[in-house]
Structures are given as C-alpha cells and as structure tokens.
Specification:
It contains 13 helices and eleven strands. By secondary structure, the chain is an alpha/beta fold. The strands form three sheets. The chain has a seven-stranded mixed β-sheet with strand order 3-2-1-4-9-6-10, with helices on both faces. Strands 5-11 form a two-stranded antiparallel ribbon. Strands 7-8 form a two-stranded antiparallel sheet.
Length: about 300
C-alpha cells in the first residue's frame, strides 16, 4: 500500500458535543465526495475516546486515532495552562512522525468543496488559514484594538524585524502546511508561551500562527473549501438531536441525512435574529436558538 502524503487532522476530546461536531465535519467531507472520501488521504483524530467514532456503521473514510489522555492534555496546555496551546502541540506531535501535506481543522467546520486544490498548493509550499479577520493596525474589533495597544506598548517585534502590529489576524480554525514547515511550529509554540502570560486572550494562539504563516509567504484562505462556524455554538443541541436519532444508520444514509443541517442557513437565521430584536428582547438579552426541524418531513424532502 502506498503511504499517504495528504492528511486531515482534528483534535476532539472532552464534551460529547465536540464529538458530534467532528462527526458532522466528517459527514460533510463524505458528502462532498458523494458518500466516500478523497483518495490518497488519511484522517487523523487526536482524541480521548476513539470508541465514539468506531460506533458508526460502514464509514469508508480512512480514520486513524492518536489517543490523548488527561496527563498529555495537561502537559500540552503547558505552564501557561492555555487550552489553545494543545492545538500547537498536537500538530508538532503529528508532524514528527509524518511527511506530507497537513490540513488541520477544528471540529466546528463543514467541508463544501473537494480539497485536492488545497493539498496541491500546500505541496508547493503554500500556507492556509481559514479567513483573514482584519489587520492589527486597523483596530477592526475590540480584541484587535487591545492587541495593537499591547504590542505597541511592548514594542514586540517578529524575528525578521517587522513590527507585529503590521501583520493581519487570520482565523486559525483551519491550518494548511507541508511538514517542511514543521520547524516553524516550535517558534509558534515559543511565541505563544511568551505572549500569553502578558496578554491572556484566546486569540494569542491564532495570532502566533498568523505571524509565522505570513512571515513564510502570502497566506491563502481555506474559505472556498470549508465553513468554520466558530460563532454558532448554539447549534449543538440540534446536532445532539440529529445523532441521537440517526447515529445507528449506515454511513451512506447518514451522509444524505446530514444535508438537513445547513450551517449557512442557520448562520443567516442567527444574524437576522440579532438584527431584528425588539428593544424589549435586547433589554432581556434574549438569545437565538435554532428551531428543531421536523426530521420526518426533512427525510421526505431528500
């Protein structure tokens, strides 16, 4: 058997809602490939419960598991005890034993297009992240504004002499790179360990990736191939209901049924809800929640 040179990597541990997100991501990958998966590729899941995935029937995806238990997770959070540090350590661990093109994704993603163009570009030395969220100097949101003032106060510079506030912030829910780039992960980790104690915000890890990926060349967006619905955790009850009802179905049928969960539509519904809230709803801080679908009606539609 020819060794794989293309890899998709997830980290999936802890709460079952994270596992359901990951399973939905895998179903979307199969849906893009009409029930199967891309050739010459392995899917690796860093998890504390591989058995949860092994309960699926007839899944054709080449799933592999790297078992991570609490002592490892604690060590990977480091002395700074930062949950997003685990991602960097997992990728360092994976690249230590593999050679090829890595596409990392958080569990809250949906594949929308074949990923061969991404892997081909990664093989030529391109780096991918999900989307650019703004330039630090533009102060595009409150977090970036705070980050800019922190960087300005400390006069922190990247190793090539470029002021850090001249970089853009990219979303790190998707990361693509060849293992030739793996040495940069050590620098990303060291940067995170140095910066997080001074600026304890969740964006520190993704800013570290943003800096070193941009320093290596122009970053490409993965948005044409995946949706990262990081701001749609409200759909977790819907996913829980879906898998409670359908998880025992054969994989091919599950792939078809998973089309009933349309993340772009749900994102629009949530945005519309907050744009149109009444004054009373705003004062009461009323929150959006997805409407549970009529599954039987949905089945008839597909």
């Amino acid at each position: 058997m020819t060794p794989a040179t293309n890899y998709i990597v997830f980290q999936c541990y802890g709460n079952e809602s994270v596992f359901q997100e990951c399973a939905n991501a895998l179903l979307s990958l199969s849906r893009v490939y009409e029930g199967g998966g891309p050739a010459g590729l392995e899917v690796w899941i860093y998890t504390d419960n591989a058995a949860w995935f092994q309960g699926f029937r007839d899944c054709p995806l080449p799933l592999h598991y790297r078992k991570i238990e609490q002592p490892t997770l604690k060590a990977w959070r480091g002395q700074i005890d930062f949950v997003h540090r685990v991602k960097i350590e997992a990728l360092r661990d994976f690249a230590r034993y593999r050679t090829g093109n890595i596409l990392y994704a958080d569990t809250d993603v949906v594949f929308t297009s074949p990923i061969e163009p991404v892997m081909t570009a990664i093989a030529t030395g391109k780096q991918y992240m999900h989307v650019m969220e703004g330039k630090i100097n533009d102060e595009g949101n409150p977090v970036l504004k705070k980050l800019k003032h922190h960087l300005k106060a400390d006069r922190l510079k990247h190793t090539n002499g470029v002021l850090l506030n001249e970089f853009a912030m990219w979303n790190a829910g998707v990361l693509g790179f060849n293992t030739r780039f793996a040495g940069e992960l050590d620098k990303i980790l060291a940067f995170t360990d140095k910066m997080y104690p001074q600026f304890q915000k969740h964006v520190v890890e993704q800013f570290a990736f943003s800096v070193f990926f941009q320093a290596a060349g122009k970053v490409k967006t993965a948005a044409p191939y995946l949706i990262h619905y990081w701001n749609l955790k409200d759909v977790r009850p819907l996913l829980a209901e879906f898998f409670k009802r359908f998880k025992a179905k054969p994989w091919k049928e599950l792939v078809l049924l998973s089309a009933l969960i349309q993340m772009p539509v749900l994102m629009q519904e949530k945005a519309g809800f907050y744009q149109n809230r009444s004054i009373a709803d705003k004062l009461l801080k009323k929150k959006w929640a997805p409407k549970m679908p009529d599954w039987d009606e949905g089945i008839e539609q597909i």
